[in-house]
Amino acid sequence: MANVAEIDNAIWGLRASEVYVPLPFPDRVVIVASQVPTEASGAISCNFALMSGDDVLYSNDSGKSTVEIQGQSSKLASKANLKIKVKNAAKNKVSIRFGTWDESTSITFKGYGDIPAFTSAFDRSMVREAISLELWRTIRRAHPAPYNRIGPWYAWSNKTLSLLTDAQFSCDCRAVSIYFQQAGDTTPQFHGVFMIRSDNTNGTYLIDDGNPKHYLLQPQHGPADLWTNDTYLSTAYWEYSSPDTPDTKAPARLINWIKSVMAGNASWGEYSQYINLQSWIDYKVFCEATGSFDSITNNLMLVSYTASETQGIWSICAYDLDETYGSMSGYIAGCPPEKAGWVTDQDEVWKSFSEYFSGEIAARFADLRSSGVLSVEKLTDILTFYASRFRPADVIRDQQLYGTNQISNYPYILNWYGQRLAWLEQQWAHSDALHPTF
User: Fold this and answer.
1) pLDDT at 8
2) Strand partners for 192
3) Tell me, what's the pLDDT at 53?
4) R_g of the chain, CA atoms, integer Å
5) How many domains does the chain have?
6) DSSP annotation of 202
7) Which of 228, 245, 314, 401 has the fewest beta carbons closer than 10 A?
8) Alpha-carbon distances of 425 from 98, 376, 421, rounded to whole Å
9) Which residues is 65 bridged to in the sheet?
10) In terms of Cα–Cα distance, which of 182, 208, 36, 40 is closest to 109?
11) Pairing between strand 28-33 and 44-52?
12) CB 217 within 8 A of CB 243
């Protein structure tokens, strides 16, 4: 029989060499580092532990992991996002998989702090993004089979991908409380409540970056003519996740068709050669229902599994949704639901799309309302799922450290959503005749 020392040595040997760790979701994270990272500090070496209650789910004391500030705008916030890059003692990257999420070698924690230079009421409730992403998935799954799988059948048939049954086609979130223990601390110090957000991996979308026809890209604060100017496809306005060596001529086929439509030389009626109309209509309805004004030339994912210079069908997926339900630039106390207007009309392409397919869009909205997918009751269920993972006392401590605002409570969100749905019902009560689409 092996003695205790032999067992300990065997366990430590595995821990030192592990490169894949499947875990349940934690609710507390303890980070041991010389300091809390700042923009100036860059990445800080750290050890860390993931806990559920008093149980340690995973600990990494290799000394090779790092913690740093994550995101672009977040670095200016009073409570910045954090990212841990996980490595073992041999300096190899370690892939962590939470629940059914895709595995990732980093862990992202979103803080949703105020940015002093911005005239906005930011989401100090910390649930807007989580509930919006789940609502997006619920809308996309509210189609008859097989269209309820979000991705097309030929994406699901790729057996080399890691998430054959669980791909979500969007990020997901879970609440955690983070503690830092720095030099001189005798115990870990509470740093705040955060959301672990799943990384935007290719596997999340059943994308194989080794396949030259698999395209996954997102716009980054694009200009007004983003959807009609193919020269932007080779600039920082578009960020490519796949394929390994993207050819801008593939997405340019879509952009140039849209440009022709806007110039009157082509028609939205040719959609079947270019876009998955269901996803584009669902995206329109979703953005209007949630008031997601920052999701038209920014914060969306453009996806194709068949893209080339001569063919390809493109879908849209939702991404990065904390500015929803009244959280809107320029409104320090929140934007009233009726005052938000048509959030997609800020973009001429989306305005044209909405006018041409007005009948289909109104019909889809009516179907989602009658089925209960778009309802205060459904959003309440979704919100309850995500909010129930917060430690209430820690939320209070977080607000004491970082403040809050009048739009960052659950009644505000649900009331705003109810009023928004009522406003949309009035707008879509009388729509044009349907085009022969689906």
Assistant:
1) 78
2) 178
3) 96
4) 23
5) 1
6) G
7) 245
8) 39, 14, 6
9) 46
10) 36
11) antiparallel
12) no
**What is the residue type of 362?**
A
DSSP sequence for 314-375 = BEEEE----S-TT--TT-TT---TTTT--GGGGSHHHHHHHHHTHHHHHHHHHHHHHTTSSS
Cβ distance 135 to 286 under 8 Å? yes
Residue 253 CB-half CA count within 13 A = 18
For the stretch 266-320, pLDDT in tens is 999 999 999 999 999 999 999 999 999 999 999 999 999 999 999 999 999 999 9
**Mutual angle of helices 358-370 and 410-427, in 10-degree steps:** 130
- In this structure, of 72-76, 120-124, 214-218, the range with the lowest mean pLDDT score is 72-76
Report which residue type is found at 28: R
Contact predicate 219/237, CB 8 Å: yes
- Of 258, 328, 249, nearest to 287 (Cα)? 328
Residues 6+ apart with CB under 8 A from 4: none
Predicted confidence at residue 433, as pLDDT, reads 45
Task: Retrieve residue 376's tokens.
Answer: 């205060």
Range of the domain at 425: 125-169+213-374+409-438
Q: Is residue 46 part of a domain?
A: no
Residue 92 placed within a domain: no
For residue 428, being part of any structural domain is answered with yes
- Asked if residue 264 is part of any domain, the answer here is yes
Residue 437's pLDDT is 43
Which tens digits make up the pLDDT trace of 174-191? 999 999 999 899 999 999
Q: Spell out the residues 6+ positions from residue 281 whose beta carbon is closer than 8 angstroms to its own.
A: 357, 360, 361, 364
